[in-house]
Design brief:
It is a single chain. By secondary structure, the chain is mainly β. Helices cover about 5% and strands about 45% of the residues. The protein is built from one helix and twelve strands, in the order βββββαβββββββ. The chain has one helix spanning about 55-60; strands spanning about 5, 10, 25-30, 35-40, 45-50, 75-85, 90-95, 100-110, 110-115, 125-130, 135-145, 150. Strands 2, 3, 4, 6, 9 and 11 form a six-stranded antiparallel β-sheet that branches. A four-stranded antiparallel β-sheet has the order 5-10-7-8, with no helix packed on it. Strands 1-12 form a two-stranded antiparallel ribbon. The longest helix has 4 residues, at about 55-60. The chain is globular, with a radius of gyration of 16 Å.
Amino acid sequence: MKLKEKREKRILWGQATDLTFLYGSVVRYLANDHIQFQNDLIPSAQIIKEWKSATSYQAERTTPALPLLRVGQAYHLKISLSTSPVKSVLVEVAFKNRFDEVIDRIATINDSLEFTYPEEAYTYSISLMSAGVTEMDFHSLLLEEVEEEKGGTSGLSES
């Protein structure tokens, strides 16, 4: 009998950077894994927070917040947040090629998302987008590799 090995990466809010929408926003850091976001005037489709798997430190002054993923591997993203109004934040995963062009994207307003990392993808990002949100309690995102038999290589690498 082979044991299954589970790989996961917990993604927290992190520091406020250019990838965080701050204009008119109140962001309270209650704990490392509990952020309160409030903005009564944020437009729909506005990115609230974004995490990237590749960054230019010289341009953005930040390091990648997402792990490298393996081509063809299936992943499960668990989303831990609550919003007012209910289901007013869209979570989007966008995949880009070597030329920084979006080749695919998948989004949900639910608490989980499954995807397979595309063969043409070079980098990816995860974004929280407004769908009419005024208040949000964000805890974390949990990116899990869909389990496979032990002995295979992991798709999540520590960076």
